[in-house]
């Protein structure tokens, strides 16, 4: 049997009911609660013949590693989906968000697009391949992670398992309408604090006002030139001051103020160099004003990731997408980050994002997945596994 025959045996009802089941197992993050869905998937994949390992991350939290074993003559292929979803907003949904209602050719529910649809497609791919009995020359690895929506807890744990790699490719079914993304921006989140001295609000000259220090700090930050080179798929560097907190009472001079800054970087930029620049900026402010005191803390540090469009794995994957959809996709970049920031460097592999969900629906009310796209994704992933591993 060849791999084209395997895709003929894919059954829509199996993919759809599995996707519904996954939506019904709530894994909203925070708090996470990925353990029940990890156990459910481990049960299915274990029965299908994969080697499964639950990776615990404390109460209620877990990732899952599942491997379809091969003769290990060639490098493995790694698929990675996250098990968690974002919470519901305040807006009322058309269909109950955890009921996985089918309507208008779509399955509706939290996580349908991001990314339980993609997760279901990967599980069916692994089951189909196991059922086919086709001998594999490289392992098929499913890294199903906890915490992607917050801190990539699971991907970080799996990235430390260096004995599994290197891999031929890391493929991630984040919502892309089955289009291909091969570059993502990095993220550098900073917490900047100023430290002052309290005094009675009627005698401000006796205190040191941390809020006013922050005003100066933000003004300098906005003037700061952070060098970068425009990226053909990602565009440029961005910086946004997004939260501010300071002071206690109207009649007390504030001794503390904290802002958080979200920086999105492009390949070629060094996060370390940016942090040094910020520290130099603070030092210069302190030289100008002896009472100025500030510090910087890094709260999230993910490098930008990019795969060259000329990479063989990208060409092969784009060819398979063309075979299934009838149109060859042009690889693009995305501004958000994914588990690829941890997995692609760890597995020394080109990264490709391609998933059946609509990217515009991720994290939105009335999230849904088009069943036809879901089936296309199973075909794409199955053909890919076959072509890379047989
Ligand atoms: Zn996602």
Brief sketch in words of this structure:
The protein has 390 residues and is α/β, with parallel strands linked by helices. It has helices at residues 3-8, 12-24, 35-48, 112-132, 153-159, 210-223, 271-288, 312-325, 340-346, 371-389; strands spanning 51-56, 62-68, 77-82, 101-103, 106-108, 140-145, 169-172, 181-184, 186-195, 238-246, 256-265, 294-302, 305-306, 332-334, 351-353, 368-370. Bound molecules: zinc ion.
Helix-strand layout with pairing:
Elements: H1 3-8, H2 12-24, H3 35-48, E1 51-56, E2 62-68, E3 77-82, E4 101-103, E5 106-108, H4 112-132, E6 140-145, H5 153-159, E7 169-172, E8 181-184, E9 186-195, H6 210-223, E10 238-246, E11 256-265, H7 271-288, E12 294-302, E13 305-306, H8 312-325, E14 332-334, H9 340-346, E15 351-353, E16 368-370, H10 371-389
Parallel strand pairs: 3-6, 3-7, 7-15, 8-14
Antiparallel strand pairs: 1-2, 2-6, 4-5, 5-16, 8-13, 9-11, 9-12, 10-11
Helix pairs in contact: 2-4, 3-4, 4-10, 5-9, 6-7, 8-10
The structure holds zinc ion.
Describe the structure.
The protein has two domains: 3-184 and 304-389, Aminopeptidase (3-Layer(aba) Sandwich); 186-302, Alpha-Beta Plaits (2-Layer Sandwich), CATH 3.30.70. Helix content is 34%, strand content 23%. It contains ten helices and 16 strands. The chain has helices spanning 3-8, 12-24, 35-48, 112-132, 153-159, 210-223, 271-288, 312-325, 340-346, 371-389, and strands spanning 51-56, 62-68, 77-82, 101-103, 106-108, 140-145, 169-172, 181-184, 186-195, 238-246, 256-265, 294-302, 305-306, 332-334, 351-353, 368-370. The chain has a six-stranded mixed sheet, with helices on both faces. A four-stranded antiparallel sheet has the order 10-11-9-12. It has a three-stranded antiparallel sheet with strand order 4-5-16. β1 and β2 form a beta hairpin. It is elongated and about 85 Å long.
